[in-house]
What does this fold into?
Amino acid sequence: MFKIINLVLFLYFTFNISYANETNTKVDQITKNLRCLICQGQSVYDSQSDFAISMKLVVKKKINEGKEDKEIYDYLKNKYGEWIVYDPELNRNTFLLWSIPLILFVFGGLLIVRKVSIK
Amino acid sequence: MSNYLGNYSLYIALIASVYLIFKSYLDANSENKYLDKNFILITSIQTVMITVSFFSLVAAFVISDFSNETVFNNSHTLKPLFYKVSGTWGNHEGSLLLWLLVLSIFLFIFLLNSRSQDTKYKLLTILFQQIIISGFLVFILLTSNPFKMLYPIPSEGLGLNPILQDPALAIHPPILYLGYVGTSIIFSASLASMISGNIGDKWARHIKKWVLVSWVFLTIGILLGSIWAYYELGWGGFWFWDPVENVSLMPWFCLTALLHTVIVLQKRNSFKEWTIILSITTFSLSMSGTFLVRSGILNSIHTFANDPSRGLYILSFLFILILMSILIFFFNQNKISNIAKENFILSKETAILVNNWFMMFFLSVVLVGTIYPIFLEVLNGSKISVGPPFYNNLLIPFLIPFLIFMSFGPSLKWIKDKLKKLNYNILIIFLVSLLISYVILTKTENSFLLSIPLIVLSIYLLLVTIKDFFVSKSSISQKISHFGFSLLITSILLNGLFSNEFNSNMKVGDERIFNEKVVKLKEVNVTDVDNYKSLKASFEVTNKNSSFALYPEVRIYQQPLTITSEADIKTTLFSDNFLVFNILKDDGYYNVRYQYKPLMIWIWISTIFIGFGGLLSIIRKNEQKY
It folds into this structure.
């Protein structure tokens, strides 16, 4: 059961990646999704700090090397920890993060069905 | 002088608070028929004292009295007067004093406004509100006294963070606080009505005003913060899912749910427990907001205090309040008289339940996304970031059913409605929105999986809410707010789909060609202004045969040393052209970010519509009809 839910969630979220909207270049797309670690709540893309500038270069270099998005994210996560990506992946640590709202939604729906008579 | 005045009036206010707590507790247990005149008197004394205290802090800021530590830390003689005044609440201590001021003023207004209410109910409301007030008073006096003295007196202050020196941000906190604090009255009043057992249609009519007032202020407060972030932070977005933004959005969802539920309570005398739960939750969320922002736990641009003892105090205070309300709820639940009423599937009641269902879901997404990283870090030390992709992934798909429900829910009748035969008007509207969406979607390449149903439905909802102005019997305020909401969703979606931008390093004389537009950096002028050094760039954007100029600016402030980017935005009814630049270390090069954002102004206008609907509902007397 658990595996099926996992699979469904996984499929759902991989499909949704397609709307990581309108960025023109790949660097922009990736750096928008990275936290500038030395800033206060800014993405690498939005920041002009030294850290952000060097991160942009790193991402550019990796893309030029022909790396896939996932490889770049994995590389950065290995180096800086999961904190650097804004899009938390589905794993043991974040399973509840993704599922609590959905569970609550189902639960709320059941409550309403109980409260309402279908006639 | 003003330091002593401010400080001692807070102590007097605290004494008044303690007196009122005991007096209201004792009187609530006796069977007094009338409210003792002393209550109004003591409450007004307290309000006056807190007002005096607040204005002595304002005065200290205006005359730059650096013997006051708060003024020293957050002000500077060179600052314009307007920002000296707004600097009063641009810091931790002052903003808490403002919270307190609003708390006491609201209680005072509440007392004046509820003469016709039951005495015991009023006494209990005073009791709970005074518990909150005394909690804040003790908190201010113990950990965040704004009147701490400095000796020797420094000759100059440290200055206010320049990004806070902005008209929208000067009024954003007070407006937002009016919303937050308004929920305290709802909280106190619903606990009081729980104990005195007067929850019902009459109480609903009385409390609805407070719900509306808080909701309108919260809406406008969030709007101002969003506008400020849009042009001042230089990122060109209007919502960043920054934890502190989320913290203001959470009570908004809850309050929106409450706003709808209270109408059911008023009309049908049902959903009593749920109304109380929502009232308690809304206030808890407002308080947790304060806690999260003030404690420095959140990594955010808004954090201006990192002091664990403050966080601990607010956390314990919050815990006590929540525990107290849960206990009161469970021990008094039997006092709620519920006549079993059937809820039919096609009725306004059910539609409002569905509205609440979605509001609670949106709330849970934002809540979990905001606090989950904190808990995870405490529990097993792993640090994760939850950013826009998370919220988009969870919220956007649920917008589809929400928009569908919203298109017909509000027009359902109370108690039981019939399934109508297919209405041709609706069919025509739907076909028209299909057609409009088709035209729109052919103009963009970057459409995503869900953009088609979302665009169709949001335009459909927009047309339905416009149609409702002419046919629906519901109140004008509801029509305006719902129209505002559908306009907001449509604008956000179209803005997201059609926005584009470039980011490039340029030097004076450079040109960049982007989407048939030519952006040219003509010159950069350096001048010294009041309290900062200004680098004003002059850009020319040529679009086919028309052209316009944009003058973004970089400001270098000395006290404290900060560099800010002031975007220049050309706003028209159809689109915003947003340009911001930054200094790069490489000589002569500037980082330039140009964004084309369609329908931007409509995001603000539609939010004003939403709030205006609420405002209209407060001031119109005959809103009882629908």
Notes: Chain B touches chain A through 56 residues (CB under 8 Å). The radius of gyration of chain B is 26 Å. Residues 1-161 of chain B form one domain. DSSP finds 17 helices and eleven strands in chain B.
